[in-house]
C-alpha cells in the first residue's frame, strides 16, 4: 500500500515494507533465546550498594570489560524485557521480576530507578499495572494474586505519583503529575523519565507535565477500575473511572494541540505547551485515552518521526546538525540520545500497540517491520543487538548520550522477539 501524498519522498517512505520470513530471523532469534542466560542475575542479599532481591531477574546488558557494568534490575526496562519472555518456559522468571519490583516498593516506598542504593532518589516510568495484567492474563493467575499486586500498585500510585509534597512532590498542577527526584534537580527528574537526555524538557524537567507520564497514570486508573470489576466491586470501579475521566479532560485541555493534531508535554510554570514533538505524544493511544478523531490526526503525524529505519524519538530539531548520521552539537549543548536520529525499542513497542488499539494495523505492521529490519541488518553485520539505533541512516552508529552506548540488549532483544511473534509467526497482525 502507498499512502497518497504530494511529497514523493514521503510516498516512498510510507510504502509497505517487503515482508520478512521466518527464515530471515531464525539466527537472530536463536541468538536472543540463548543470550538471556548472559543477562540473568540472582542477588538475594545486599552487597555494598547493590540491593538484594528475592528472585532472579534480567539486566539490560552484559558486555565483559565494558566501562558500564550492569548487575541491577531496572524498573521500566523490566516491563519491556518481559514482552519477549511471556511464555510458559519463562513463567517463573517473568513473575519473579514483577515480585522483585513489588518488594522494592514495600521496602523503600518507591520502585527505584534501579536496584542500587544511590538510585533510590527517583523512580522510572510507572508500568506496574500493565505488568500485572500481562502476567495475570498470560499465566491465568488467581484473583488473590491480582488483588495483592494491584493493591501495591495502588499504594505506589497514591504515595509516589500522586504525592503533593517531598519526598514525592509529583502532583503539581490541576491533578496532573511531573517527573521528580528527591534532590529537586532537573536533570535527575529527567532521568526518572527514562529519556536521559532529551530535548523535550529543555533541561527543566521539573517544570513540565509529561504527556507520557500522565498517560501511564491514566492507564493505572483504568487498570484499577478494571481490577475492581474483576474483583466484584462496582462502586470502587466507578471511582477509578471518574479519576480517569478527569485526567483525560485535563490532559486534552492542556496537552492536545489542535493545530498540530498531536499531544505535547505541558510546561505548567510558563503555562504553555512544549515546542518539541516526540513519540511520547503517542502514549495516549497506547493508554486508550485519545478519541478516534485524535488518533486519526496523530497517525497522520507518523511521517514526522518515520525514517528509513523506523521511528526517531523526536522530530528533527535544530539543537544540532546531523553530519554522516551523527549529531554535531552546538556549543554548550548536552548529548540527547533520546532524540532524532535515534530510535528505541520501547518507543516502537508503545507506538505499534497504540496503532493497533485504534485499528491502524497496516501502519503498525509497517513500523514494526522497519524496526525489525534495522535490528536484523545490524545483527547480520555485527553479530550483536544495540541499546538504540540510528533510524535515519541505519547502517551508521546511533548518536551517543551521556553514557556509553551498550550492546546486549534486554529490551531490544525482547521487542524484536515480540514483533517476530506478532508480525512474522502470525498470519494476521493483532
Give your account of this protein's structure.
The protein has helices at 8-13, 22-39, 75-82, 91-108, 128-139, 143-161, 186-192, 211-230, 234-255, 283-287, 292-300, 345-357, 361-382, 410-425; strands spanning 40-41, 57-58, 171-173, 176-177, 208-209, 256-257, 262-263, 266-267, 272-273, 306-307, 310-311, 320-323, 326-329, 342-343, 389-390. It has 430 residues and is mainly alpha-helical. It folds into 2 domains: 1-41 and 305-430, no CATH class; 162-300, Alpha/alpha barrel (Glycosyltransferase), CATH 1.50.10. The strands form 7 sheets. It has a 3-stranded antiparallel beta sheet with strand order 5-8-9. Strands 1-2 form a two-stranded antiparallel ribbon. A hairpin with a 4-residue loop joins strand 8 and strand 9. The chain is globular and about 50 Å long.
What key phrases describe this protein's structure?
430 residues, mainly alpha, Glycosyltransferase, 2 domains, two-stranded antiparallel ribbon, 45% helix, disordered N terminus
Round the Cα radius of gyration to an integer and report it. Answer: 20 Å
Total tally of structural domains: 2
Largest sheet: spatial strand order: 5-8-9
Structural class: mainly alpha
Chain-wise SSE layout:
Elements: H1 8-13, H2 22-39, E1 40-41, E2 57-58, H3 75-82, H4 91-108, H5 128-139, H6 143-161, E3 171-173, E4 176-177, H7 186-192, E5 208-209, H8 211-230, H9 234-255, E6 256-257, E7 262-263, E8 266-267, E9 272-273, H10 283-287, H11 292-300, E10 306-307, E11 310-311, E12 320-323, E13 326-329, E14 342-343, H12 345-357, H13 361-382, E15 389-390, H14 410-425
Antiparallel strand pairs: 1-2, 3-4, 5-8, 6-7, 8-9, 10-11, 12-13, 14-15
Helix pairs in contact: 2-14, 3-4, 3-14, 4-5, 5-6, 5-8, 6-8, 8-9, 12-13, 12-14, 13-14
Amino acid at each position: 500500500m502507498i499512502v497518497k501524498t504530494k511529497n514523493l519522498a514521503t510516498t516512498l517512505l510510507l510504502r509497505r515494507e517487503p515482508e520478512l520470513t521466518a527464515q530471515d530471523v531464525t539466527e537472530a532469534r536463536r541468538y536472543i533465546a540463548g543470550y538471556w542466560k548472559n543477562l540473568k542475575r540472582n542477588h538475594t542479599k545486599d552487597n555494598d550498594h547493590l540491593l538484594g532481591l528475592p528472585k532472579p531477574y534480567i539486566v539490560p546488558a552484559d558486555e565483559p570489560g565494558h566501562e558500564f557494568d550492569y548487575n541491577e534490575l531496572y524498573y521500566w526496562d523490566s516491563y519491556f524485557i518481559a514482552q519477549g519472555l511471556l511464555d510458559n518456559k519463562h513463567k517463573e522468571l517473568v513473575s519473579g521480576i514483577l515480585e522483585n519490583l513489588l518488594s522494592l516498593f514495600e521496602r523503600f516506598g518507591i520502585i527505584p530507578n534501579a536496584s542500587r542504593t544511590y538510585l533510590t532518589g527517583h523512580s522510572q516510568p510507572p508500568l506496574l499495572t500493565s505488568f500485572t495484567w500481562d502476567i495475570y492474563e498470560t499465566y491465568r493467575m488467581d484473583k488473590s494474586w491480582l488483588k495483592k499486586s494491584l493493591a501495591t500498585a495502588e499504594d505506589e500510585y497514591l504515595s509516589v505519583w500522586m504525592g503533593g509534597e517531598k519526598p514525592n512532590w509529583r502532583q503539581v498542577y490541576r491533578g496532573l503529575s511531573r517527573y521528580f527526584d528527591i534532590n529537586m534537580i532537573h536533570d535527575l527528574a529527567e532521568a526518572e523519565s527514562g529519556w536521559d537526555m532529551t530535548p523535550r524538557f529543555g533541561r527543566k524537567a521539573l517544570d513540565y507535565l509529561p504527556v507520557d507520564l500522565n498517560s501511564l497514570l491514566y492507564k493505572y486508573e483504568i487498570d484499577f477500575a478494571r481490577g475492581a470489576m474483576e474483583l466484584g466491586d462496582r462502586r470502587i470501579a466507578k471511582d477509578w473511572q471518574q479519576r480517569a475521566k478527569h485526567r483525560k479532560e485535563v490532559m486534552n485541555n492542556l496537552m492536545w494541540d489542535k493545530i498540530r493534531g498531536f499531544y505535547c508535554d505541558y510546561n505548567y510554570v510558563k503555562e504553555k505547551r512544549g515546542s518539541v514533538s516526540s513519540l511520547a505524544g503517542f502514549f495516549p493511544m497506547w493508554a486508550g485515552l485519545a478519541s478516534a478523531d485524535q488518533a486519526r490526526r496523530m497517525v497522520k503525524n507518523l511521517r514526522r518521526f518515520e525514517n528509513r529505519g523506523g521511528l526517531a524519538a523526536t522530530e528533527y530539531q535544530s539543537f544540532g546538525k546531523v553530519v554522516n548520521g551523527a549529531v554535531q552539537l552546538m556549543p554548550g549543548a548536552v548529548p540527547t540520545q533520546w532524540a532524532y536520529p535515534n530510535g528505541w525499542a520501547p518507543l516502537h513497542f508503545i507506538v505499534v500497540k497504540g496503532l493497533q488499539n485504534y485499528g491502524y494495523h497496516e501502519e503498525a505492521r509497517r513500523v514494526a517491520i522497519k524496526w525489525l529490519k534495522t535490528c536484523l541488518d545490524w545483527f547480520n553485520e555485527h553479530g550483536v543487538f544495540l541499546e538504540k539505533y540510528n533510524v535515519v541512516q541505519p547502517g551508521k552508529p546511533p548518536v551517543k548520550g551521556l553514557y556509553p552506548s551498550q550492546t546486549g540488549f534486554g529490551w531490544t532483544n525482547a521487542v524484536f522477539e515480540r514483533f517476530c511473534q506478532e508480525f512474522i509467526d502470525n498470519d494476521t497482525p493483532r
